[in-house]
Structures are given as structure tokens and as C-alpha cells.
Amino acid sequence: MRPSSDSPAPADQIEGGVIPSNLRSADRIQPRPVLWLITAVAVSLSLFQLYTAGIRPLGLFYQRPAHLAFVLVLAFLIFPVFGQTRARGLFGWLIDSVLIVAGFFSGFYIIWNLDAIIARAGWWTPMDITVGIICTLAVLEASRRAVGLGMTIIGAIAILYALAGSRGALPGLGEWLPGVLSHRGANMDRLVGQLYLGQEGIFGLPLGVAATFVFMFVLFGAFLEKTGAGKFFIDLAFAATGRKPGGPAKAAVIASAGMGSISGSAIANVVTTGAFTIPLMKRLGYKPKQAGGIEAAASTGGQITPPLMGAGAFLISEYTRVPYIEIVLVSIFPAILYLGTVYLFVHIVAMKQGMRGMSPSELPLVRQVLKAGWQFIVPLVLLVWLLVNNISPMRVGFWAIISVIAVAGLRGAWALAADGPLTGARLRASVMRGLRMIFESLELGARNAVAVSIACAVAGIIVGVVGLTGLGLKFSSMMISLSGGNIVIALALVLIASLVLGLGLPVTASYIVLIVLVGPALHNEFGIPLLIAHLVVFWYSQDSNVTPPVALAGFAGAAVAGAKPMETSMQAWKFAKGLYLIPLFMVFNPEIIYGGPLPIVLWTGFTAILGLVAFAAVIEGWLFGRMDPVSRVIAIPAIIALFWPDFTVEAIGTGVLLLLLGWNWLGAWREGDKTQFNKA
User: Fold this and answer.
1) d(CA 329, CA 446)
2) DSSP state, 14?
3) How far is the C-alpha of 220 from the C-alpha of 205, rounded, in Å?
4) Contact by Cβ (8 Å): 503, 550
5) Rounded distance, CA 39 to CA 72, Å?
6) pLDDT of residue 19
């Protein structure tokens, strides 16, 4: 059974709306003129982004408001007020028509009046305040529809918190705030000036990143999907690993990491890639909960894998002022460690259960896959080459998209020439297919970007309130007090906070809010290097994908696998343990990120790999063969020793683990299980 990208996705819902590759399922209740209008707005947004990325860049107060105006209109068209399963009706259309006009007007109001707004900075007119309130309400309502009610509630609470206080618009509410969270409060003019008319609110850095770098790479992913590159990469993963024990699961790790690194959504990746991999895993012998958990853990790995990292690489670069290409380079090895850990878990489970690989007749050959689709590697090579040469990521995305179109056009021309005599009818049909592919890609890219752009706009509201009220400093003081100055406890508090935020925020927004709140304390008070502090918070923000009781990707995997959600989430949590251990290793062994003398870097890399291998073996009770309980108990303190910032302690832990793993290898050899040993 060869995987096919034409298989329908088995579920419709994802974080922030609907599956990016299958948004059409929600369009069934939409009248045809509305679908045409959605297509027109989406294509216009994508063309606008391409124009500003590759032809004429715009200033931030032109780019961001125009982007938000397009996105708000698109959100209110795609997501009806009463949900996607009910027709709007007259009342619904009245509401949505008002919101569509409000979204468009509030975005372009700044563009039309930019010079006057700058001239009267701080002395806002009633019209400025009114439009600012309209824009804020429109963003919150769009968030309810496209992202979820949880994020809308958090944004509304942030606004109420800003207004609470003795000098604020809601002084009575300020009396209920505990002392550490109290502040003087802001009036409506000051709040609107911060959220709508300044650079630290809705049009702040999060939306700026979404409106430039992220959109271009999401659009790039849409072109890859529509031209068949997604199928090429999935087939390549199956051809490379399908014959090995647990082959489909190993292919899931590779394919999900590859597609997830560009798609920008772990949940979307689960329900698309998982549509191929999960049924094959179940057929091979994996339990449904294991199959769903493996896919969820692997898809989460795509969010920490360069180049896109679920928009994280761009945000980290903007916040730290570290060049984007450096973020990409330092993230490669940690991503390999995480994916390698998931891969090892998959292998151990396969060996424990005596699984075999798929038969060669069921799998494509590597050379055949490469022969059919090697052209799709060209845009990725071009993308990397441009990044290495310090070209702006926005411009890189533009040229990567152009290269995909060129490659697809040449591929189509070659197929046209190979199929027989060239006629006018065949040429016209081929050109129309190409144009249709381009327009579908432009539409899909814009649709896929709606949720992340809206989430970044709401995150801007929260960040603006944090800056206005000084909440970040208050939160840092609370964290220092609760941790007692202990860095391990502080990191545990960050992990808990990320999980709580994950209940209502998507990953990107969770990272933005959390880094604003705890980033200063991690860097200034606990001495964690700035880049590592951001990477730790970003990695921990992924835990809502795989950690019960949230586990959004785990729930999606359960839906595809037909398993119980909580059981599947527990499996995803187990397979994704690298998500928690690798950030700790970054903190206590910064050489893994910043580099250093070659012997130290090699030693650090070796101990990281050894620790993760030993940890997987302890959890599963198996490596080369069954691991006895005594060895598993002894290995736990030895693994902890690898994280200790002292060479002697690390060396002792390394020695103990090597002895234990060597004993396990020797036991497997003595039992004569040479076949399992060789496969391992």
C-alpha cells in the first residue's frame, strides 16, 4: 500500500480553525458567491504579500494594518458567526457584514490617516479612539471564530486588567486585585493608544512577524502541497524506512518532521500525514493509542525543526536580534536529538513486540521516488542557499515560491512533451491546469495564515497590556520568590505556566506571552543566556500539543487512530519526553547552542545523545534486549548526573550509563538474540 497525498483527511478541526490542507469541508454551507468572494480576498492577500516581499517593501504601519484588514475580512467570511455547521441566515449576515466592514475599515484607517496620527501622537481624536475600540473588538471576535474561545477570553481579561486600578476606567475592579498584581490603571484613551495607535499592541512585533516572514513560508508550504511536493517527501520517507521494523512509524517521524517544519501546525500535520501513517502503523501491530501518540509526538517535532519552526524562528530572531540564519543553525542539533528520541522509542516498541517491516512490494523504491520528484528538492536547496547568504527571510520566501512555480512549470512541460504530439488543445489545457494550481495555492496559503495572524494580533493585545501595566516585572518577581532562586524550580514553574497558557492559547501565542512574562527573569536573575532562554520557553510552549489534559495533537491523533483521547495523549507525552529534557540540557550545557572548543562540543553532544538513549531505555525497559529493574533504577541518577554542570559528575554518570547499556548488550548477546541486536 503506497501512501497517497490524495487521501482525504479524516478530521476537520485543528488548533485555530480547520485543517489547512482541507479547509473546504467548512465551505459546504457557504453560497457559491461567498466562496468566490473568499477566493478573491484570499488571492488578493497573497498577491499583496508577494508584491511587498519581492517587489516593493512597505513600512510597518502600511504592511501590518493592510495585512490585518485582509485577514479580518477573510476570517469573517470563512467562519460564520453561529459556527461552521449552520447557515448564516439574515441575522447572521447582518452581523458578519458589519464585522467585515469594521475589520476592513479599522485596518485601512491607519493607512489613510497615518501622517495625521503621527503628528498628533498622544492627542487622539474621538474618531481615533472609536476606530481603535472597533478594531480591538473585531480582533477578539475573529479570534473566537478562527482560534478558539480560550484565547479570546484571555485577551479580554488582559484588557480588563489594564483598565482596573485607581486611575483606570474600572477603579472598582482594581480593588479586587492582589497587592502584587495591582497597578494604577489606564483610561480608555491611553489603552487604545497602546493597543491600536502604537507599535506595542495589535500592530506590534507578533503581527509584524506574521505579516511578513511567516506568511511567506506558509504560502511556500501551500505551493509545495499543491504541486505534489508533499507526496514526494512522504513517499521518500516510506521508501527509506518502510522495510525496517516499525517502518511506517519511522516514516511518520521523518515525514511529519519534514512537513511540519514548513506547515506551521502540529495538529494539521497529524490529521494530514497521519491519514497515511496511522493506518499503516495499526496494520503493522502498533496499538491504536501508540499509533496516534507516535504521530502526535512526531508532528510536534516539526514545530521545533528549521526552517519555519512554527513561526518560532522568526519571532526568536526578532526578540533577541540574533540573525534568523543563526537561529536555524543552532536549532538543527536539538531538533535532531528530539526526533532521534522519538525514532528510538518507535524502534524499541517495534523490537519489543517483534514487529517486521513492510514488504518491498508495498513500498516505492528510493531511486524511483527521486527520479519522479527530485525537482522538488531544488526550491529547498535554493531556500537554504539564500538564507546562508543573509538574504532577508521575507525575500527568501518570495524567491522560494517563484522557484516552486518554475519547477512545477518545467515538470508540466516535460510531461506534456513526453505524452505525445503537442497540440493547441493540449497546450491550453496544460496552461489552465498550471494557472489553476497557482490560484489554488494562493488561496490555500492565505487561508492557512488566518489563524496564526489572528493569534498574533491577540498576542499583541496581551503583550501591549503587559508593557502598559508592568505585569512582566511583577511576574518575574513572583517567579523568583516562588522558586527561592533555584533554577530547576524556576524552569519547572515555566513548564507549568506554559501548560496552563496552552489551555487557551496556540503555541505561537503561548510563546510570545510567556517570554514577555518570564524571559527577563530567566535571563537577568537566573543568568540563562538570552537565546537559550527564548529556546527553552519556545520548546516548553509546545507541551500543550502532547501533555494531558490538553494534548491538542494527541487528541487529533486519537481521532485519526480511533483510540481514546487520554490514552493516546499519554502515549504522545511518553514519546515526546525529549521536549522536556533537551531544554534542560541547553541550560546546563550551553555549548550545545553557543559552541566552544571542539572537545567540549563533542563531549556535550555525546552526553546528550547518551542521556536520551538511556532515558528511552529506562522508560521502555528495553534497548538491545529486556532491561532488568535494577539497571533501570540505577540509570535514573546517572542520567540526572549528565545534566549536572560539573565535568566530574558528568563523567561518573557517563561511565555508569555505558556500563549499564553494555551490560544490556551483553545480556542480549548471551541470550543469542543476535538478530534483534543487529537490527538495533
Assistant:
1) 28
2) E
3) 22
4) yes
5) 14
6) 37
Query: How far is 45 from 447, CA to CA, in rounded Å?
Result: 10
Grid cell locating 32: 457559491
Kind plus residue range of the DSSP H or E element containing 327: helix 324-352
Q: Are 298 and 257 in contact (CB under 8 A)?
A: yes
Instruction: List all residues 6 or more positions away from 209 whose beta carbon is below 8 Å from its beta carbon.
Output: 311, 314, 315, 318, 456
Backbone angles phi, psi at 79, to 5 degrees: -110, 100
For residue range 166-189, list pLDDT tens digits in order: 888 888 887 788 777 888 888 999
Q: Which residue has better confidence, 40 or 14?
A: 40
* Residue 213 near residue 314 (C-beta atoms within 8 A): yes
By the 10 Å C-beta count (0-12 exposed, 13-18 middle, 19+ buried), 113 is classed as middle
Using CA atoms, how far residue 579 sits from 236, 281, 303, 334, in Å, is 26, 23, 11, 10
pLDDT > 70: percent of the chain: 92
Look up residue 619 and give its three cell numbers.
Answer: 522508560
CB-based burial label for 607 (10 Å; 0-12, 13-18, 19+): buried
Closest CA to 141 of 444, 461, 443, 510: 461
Spatial contact of 623 and 669, defined as CB atoms under 8 Å apart: no
Q: Which residue has the cell 492577500?
A: 45
Residue 503 clears pLDDT 80, i.e. is over it: no
Torsions phi, psi for 87 (to 5 deg): -70, 150
pLDDT in tens, 340-386: 998 888 888 888 877 776 777 777 777 888 877 788 888 878 887 88
Residue 94 phi, psi (nearest 5): -60, -45
3-state helix, strand, coil in the chain (%, to 5): 75, 0, 20
605-653 pLDDT tens trace: 999 999 999 998 988 888 888 888 888 899 999 999 988 878 899 999 9
Q: Tell me the whole-structure pTM to 2 decimals.
A: 0.79
11 contacts: CB under 8 Å, gap ≥ 6: 19, 271, 556, 559, 560
Nearest to 215 by CA among 49, 77, 57, 104: 49
Terminal CA-CA length for the chain: 26
Judged against a pLDDT cut of 70, whether residue 93 lies above it is answered with yes
Nearest to 311 by CA among 442, 443, 448, 153: 448
Cα 648 to Cα 639: distance, rounded to the nearest angstrom: 14
Give the pLDDT confidence score for residue 130 in this predicted structure.
Answer: 94
Query: pLDDT tens digits, residue range 385-399?
Result: 887 787 888 888 899
Sign of CA dihedral 630, 679, 258, 252: negative
Task: Count the neighbouring beta carbons within 10 Å of the beta carbon of residue 318.
Answer: 17
Where are the chain's structural domains?
13-195, 207-414+441-463, 597-680
Cα-Cα-Cα-Cα dihedral sign, residues 616, 621, 625, 629: positive
DSSP assignment string, 484-506: TT-HHHHHHHHHHHHHHHTTTS-
